[in-house]
Amino acid sequence: MKICVVGTGYVGLVTCACFADLGNDVIGVDADADKIKKLHQGEIPIFEPGLKELVDRNRGKRLTFTTDLKAGVQASEFIFIAVGTPPRENGEADLTAVKQVAAGIGQNLNGPKIVVDKSTVPVGMGDLVASIIEEHSAHQNKVDVVSNPEFLREGSAVHDFMNPNRVLIGTNDTGAAERVSELYAPLEAEIMVTDLRSAEMIKYASNAFLATKITFINEIANLCEKVGADVSKVAHGMGLDSRIGPAFLSAGAGYGGSCFPKDVSALIHKAEKEGYDFRLLKAVVAANQYQKRSMLARIKEVLGPLEGKQIATLGLSFKPNTDDLREAVAVEVIHLLQENGARVRAYDPAAMKLAAKALPGVKLAENAYAAVAGADCLVVFTEWNEFKEMDLARVKSAMRTPVIVDGRNIFDPQKVKALGFKYRGVGRK
Ligand code: UDX
Which site in 196, 304, 366, 387 is 20 to 30 Å from 187, CA atoms measured? Predict the structure, then answer.
């Protein structure tokens, strides 16, 4: 099938590569000429496991890239919108890019199209996209707007696209639903067809629920510390109840990333616009903010005043297997450490290039062992496997004082204490 994907960010580029690999002819469109030039040369602008292999395998054959929206629209039956919807200062989603693309599609229509929205947009945006397209098109063409939210996680995006829990298709037109279902048929996944607005809501409700689940276990973790319980065991015991399930119950330094913070804020904002006060989600935002900042308190608790202290931080991205620093807990806490007079030496397996820009004044180490050399405290922000497998005896001998603050509970407290470390996790005695 002929597909155009507008926007070649995380979601767009993964969508391009995966649909091409499934045998479709895909044109990736992006207004950023530099990005398109790099993609032509096989350079992938983001770190995402498995993505380069897919792009390389299909590039120049079933997968092409252009800045020309008209060419993409006119050559395709399906036009996917996968542009960014970044948060405005008040938490509202900025829909400028989606609206611009909708207008561009309208101006360049040359026949019937199915416009599929993959960008996370507030409920009602699909209807607005349909009216913008109609407003900008000179001729009458049948255009169906479908909501097809993406649930992929950074770091496992290709795997998630190819192995979805469910494919969600939101449209009020059964013909369009059937055509979009055909695109996903090779994945043999469960397909749910619903109306446009319910699909848009499912995306926000899912992300907000997961953010709430993480925040709930973080609050339980904080209480565990006070009553002498261990949150890992508590989470395991809770997860055995099939009504709760074990996923997204890892307590830690709080959630970050390009989706949860933005989508939770956007849902609160949408509710407010509709005259509804979403009390629970407001509490989630506040509790997550507290959790991130509590990392500073944990470090102070074991180190005392931070003035002049040397702190090694491991992991900068908001989660493992990505270089994405958006809303990363590490970045926020490192700023707090600096404000408190500490000197920071950081290491991340993938995000060093971006970190050099985002964290001026922070020394970047070549590897984890170089980061801990001479440090008064080692702080773990991201659970990369290479940190879990570190030689802790070597770490201890390299540090000035053997102190670990483990923001992701990756180390076994008994083992590190036996090695002579002072240890502080999250939700552990
Ligand atoms: C999320 C959703 O999972 C995905 O379906 C959606 O399409 C986009 O947003 P992503 O942000 O890539 O994906 O990462 P995810 O693995 O969900 O983690 C988000 C944040 O929650 C990270 O900061 C992570 O460290 C944190 N987290 C996750 C926890 O603190 N504990 C957990 O148990 C799980």
Answer: 196
- Residues β-bridged to residue 14: none
Task: Enter the pTM of the model.
Answer: 0.94
Q: Is the CB of 153 under 6 A from ligand 1?
A: yes
Under DSSP, is residue 5 helix (H, G, I), strand (E, B) or coil? strand
| Residue entry with tokens 């989706």 | 259
Residues with catalytic roles: 259
Instruction: Confirm or reject: Cβ of 216 under 6 Å from ligand 1.
Output: no
Last residue within a domain, chosen from 173, 194, 215 = 194
Residue 36 within any structural domain of the chain: yes
- Tens digits of residue pLDDT in 87-122: 899 988 899 999 999 999 999 999 999 999 999 899
**Closest ligand 1 atom to the C-alpha of 382?**
25
Q: What is the pLDDT of residues 256-308, one digit of tens each?
A: 999 999 999 999 999 999 999 999 999 999 999 999 999 999 999 999 999 99
Ligand 1 contact via 161 beta carbon (within 6 Å): no
Contact 133, 156 (CB under 8 A): no
Is position 266 within any domain? Answer: yes
Asked if residue 367 is part of any domain, the answer here is: yes
pLDDT of residue 140: 87
Q: Do the domain assignments include residue 429? A: no
Residues spanned by the domain of 153: 2-194
Token pair recorded at residue 311: 């702190």
Where a domain ends, among 143, 168, 194? 194
CA 359, CA 344: separation in Å to the nearest integer?
10
Three-state DSSP at 303 gives helix
Residues 161 and 36 in one domain: yes
Q: Using a 6 Å cutoff on CB, does residue 204 contact ligand 1?
A: no
Q: What is the pLDDT of residue 360?
A: 87
